[in-house]
Design a protein that fits this description.
The protein is an alpha/beta fold. The chain is built from 14 helices and twelve strands.
C-alpha cells in the first residue's frame, strides 16, 4: 500500500487491518487467479476452502416450492433473530442431536453464516481488552473478528494430533483470570481436520467448572462447527460418527454453524447460533444476539434461505456427497506421506495440514520469514501449485491444503510436490 493510499483510509484500517493481518489465504488465492490469467497451463489451486460440490438438487427444488407456496409478506423485514417457525425447527433438531432438555426457538438466532454468528456473539459478550483463547492452529479470520471488538486473540498450543491441551488452556486462564472471556473451539477443525473427543470435552468442562464456573463475569465457549456434517463414514453409505459437542457438557456454550460447507451454500450466507438452555445470562444473551444481528448491519439472515432449511435438512437426498472430499483428502495424504510428510488420517472436511519432512524444515535459528513452510510455498508456486503456509494459521513448518478441487488437481499437485521436494 502506498503512503497516499494509506492516508486516504482511516489509520486503523490502513495499518492494523489491511497492513498487519492481510490474509495469506486471500493473497495466495489471488496469486493463483493471476497465474491463470497469465496463461501457461493449468494452476493447481489448493488455497481457498471454497466448496467445490454443488448444492443438492433437493435444495433447488425447495426454493421453487417455497416461492410457489408462499403467502404475502415473505420478503419483508422480520424479527431480527429470524422466522419463529424456522428457529423452532432448528431448536428441535439441535435438542435431539445433543440431548438438550429445554432448548427453545428463543435460543436460536438465524445469522449471516457462521462468520456473522461469531461476530454477533463476540460483540455481545466481549469488552475491549478481553482475551479470546483459541487452540492453534486456527482459522485465520478469528484474528479479524477479535479485532472487530478490540479484544485480543490468544493462541494456545495443542497436544498430539492437534488435540486439546487442557493444561495450556488452564494456564492462560490462570495467568489472566479477569481478562479471559471466551474460548473458541472449532471441531472438526480448519485447518487440521481434528475432531475433539467426547473424553477431552468432558475434561474441558470439568476444568472450566473449577476455574471459571463460579466467576461473576461469565466465561463463554463458542463452538464453531460448520464442518460437523462433513465427517467421513467408515464405509461409503454408512452413517458417520457424530461430532461431540460441549453443548450439554458446559453450561455457557454457544454453538455456531452454517450450511456454507455441508450444503455448498457459502455464497448464500445462511447460518445460526444455538445458546445452551443452561447458560447463565441466557435471556440477556438471546436479546443481545438479536440486537447485534441488527446493529452490526446484518439485520436478519437471508429470508428465502431460512425458509428453505426445513425442507432440506435431515433428508438423505439433501446432502452433498462427502465421499468426494474424502477421496481427494485420502489420495493426497497418501501421496504426501510417500514424500515424508506427516499427517493424521483425514476424518472430516476438506483440509489437510501436513507437517513438513525434517529435511524441508528451517533450522531452529531461522526467523519466521524463512520458515520451511514459506519456502516450500514459494517453490510449489514455481510448479504452478498454490498452497497456504502453516504460519498463516499460527503454526509454522506445516502447509494448509484445501482439497475441494477436481480429482485432476490432486494428481497435478502431487506431481508438483514431487518436483518441489526433490
Ligand atoms: C472454521 C470456520 N469458521 C467459520 C467459517 C465461516 O463460515 P461461513 O461461510 O458460514 O460464514 C469458516 C469458513 O471457511 C471456517 O472455516
Amino acid at each position: 500500500m502506498s503512503d497516499a493510499e494509506r492516508e486516504a483510509l482511516s489509520a486503523r484500517i490502513a495499518n492494523e487491518v489491511l497492513g498487519a493481518s492481510e490474509s495469506w489465504t486471500r493473497r495466495m488465492f489471488e496469486l493463483g487467479l493471476q497465474m491463470r490469467a497469465d496463461g501457461g497451463g493449468p494452476v493447481w489451486d489448493l488455497s481457498l476452502g471454497n466448496p467445490s460440490l454443488e448444492p443438492p438438487q433437493l435444495w433447488r427444488q425447495a426454493i421453487v416450492d417455497a416461492l410457489r407456496d408462499e403467502p404475502p409478506g415473505m420478503h419483508r423485514y422480520m424479527t431480527n433473530a429470524g422466522y419463529p417457525e424456522v428457529r423452532e425447527f432448528i431448536a428441535g433438531r439441535e435438542a435431539a442431536r445433543y440431548g438438550l432438555d429445554g432448548l427453545e426457538a428463543g435460543d436460536v438466532v438465524m445469522t449471516v453464516g457462521a462468520a456473522g454468528a461469531m461476530n454477533v456473539l463476540l460483540r455481545s459478550v466481549c469488552d475491549p481488552g478481553d482475551q479470546i483463547l483459541v487452540p492453534a492452529p486456527y482459522f485465520t479470520e478469528y484474528t479479524n473478528y477479535a479485532a472487530n471488538v478490540d479484544a485480543q486473540l490468544v493462541p494456545v498450543p495443542t497436544g498430539p494430533g492437534f488435540s486439546l491441551d487442557l493444561a495450556a488452556i488452564e494456564q492462560v486462564i490462570a495467568a489472566n483470570p479477569n481478562a479471559a472471556r471466551v474460548l473458541l473451539l472449532n471441531s472438526p477443525n480448519n485447518p487440521t481436520g481434528a475432531i475433539y473427543s467426547a473424553e477431552s470435552l468432558d475434561a474441558l468442562a470439568a476444568m472450566l467448572n473449577e476455574r471459571v464456573g463460579e466467576r461473576k463475569r461469565p466465561f463463554w465457549v463458542i463452538e464453531d462447527s460448520p464442518y460437523r456434517d462433513l465427517v467421513y463414514p467408515a464405509q461409503p453409505g454408512a452413517e458417520p460418527d457424530p461430532v461431540p459437542s460441549l453443548l450439554g457438557r458446559w453450561p455457557n456454550t454457544v454453538l455456531v454453524t452454517s450450511h456454507s460447507k455441508d450444503l455448498g451454500l457459502a455464497g448464500e450466507r445462511i447460518g445460526y447460533l444455538v445458546i445452551s438452555p443452561q447458560a447463565r445470562g441466557r435471556a440477556l444473551l438471546r436479546r443481545a444476539a438479536s440486537f447485534c444481528n441488527r446493529t452490526l448491519g446484518f439485520v436478519n439472515a437471508p429470508a428465502l434461505m431460512q425458509r428453505v432449511l426445513p425442507r432440506v435438512l435431515g433428508r438423505p437426498e439433501g446432502r452433498v456427497d462427502v465421499e468426494i472430499y474424502a477421496q481427494n483428502c485420502r489420495r493426497m495424504a497418501a501421496g504426501l506421506r510417500d514424500l515424508g510428510f506427516e499427517l493424521p488420517d483425514p476424518r472430516a472436511g476438506f483440509f489437510l495440514f501436513p507437517a513438513l519432512p525434517e529435511r524441508l524444515r528451517a533450522t531452529s535459528s531461522a526467523s519466521d520469514s524463512t520458515s520451511g513452510d514459506i519456502a516450500l510455498t514459494e517453490r510449489l508456486r514455481e510448479h504452478r501449485t498454490i498452497v497456504v503456509p502453516g504460519t498463516a494459521f499460527g503454526v509454522s513448518e506445516h502447509l494448509r491444503l484445501s482439497m475441494c478441487v477436481d480429482a485432476s488437481a490432486v494428481d497435478g499437485a502431487l506431481e508438483a510436490f514431487r518436483a518441489a521436494c526433490a
